[in-house]
Amino acid sequence: MDTIRVILADDHTLLRAGLRALLEDLPGVEIVAEAADGREALALVEAHRPDVVLMDIAMPHLSGLDVSARLRQERPEVKVLILSMHKDEAYVRRAVLSGASGYLLKDSDTEELGLALRAVARGETYLSPAVSKHLVADYRRQAGEQPGPAGGLTPRQREVLRLIAEGETTKAIARRLGISIKTVESHRTLLMERLGIHDVPGLVRYAIRAGLITTEP
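Now predict its structure.
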């Protein structure tokens, strides 16, 4: 795809500088502006029309959630990727309901940052795998206890699906299975296409119904 144009919004100057350094190392990513608060982020979106706003959840004047809700109404073509330190289901749910396309934990590695940016730029939803792990119990309650079949998947696809649902990062899955990060990403994409699922939470729900993972401690 073309270069992903990003606005970086965070009220902490040092954190913004660190994120900028990480983003500048990612191929196909261009930082077009930086914002220190929510109001500035909205103004910069109007000025630059980015593809993605990478934004802290807590900022002065307008929070990341408030900005996300505004953009959903006024600039739905601009995708929001929320940055947060919180793994709690309540934070994630609020972010998704506000219109955010992704929720990335601040302790994610560079590979996950790039994966998340590419996913939301394509119009997909992305949640950090660690967040998915914390949501497993809630999704199991919603899905019910009856497992569904995982027929039609290869043994490797089943293994990748299980590890994704258990909250493993792309890098960790690649290391564990002895394959490349790009191969893991390809497996994830093929799984979504084959199962008709368009985000990581959907894969988690499917893995639970299929009995590939358990919520037992």
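The beta strands are 4-9, 29-35, 52-56, 79-84, 102-105, 126-127.
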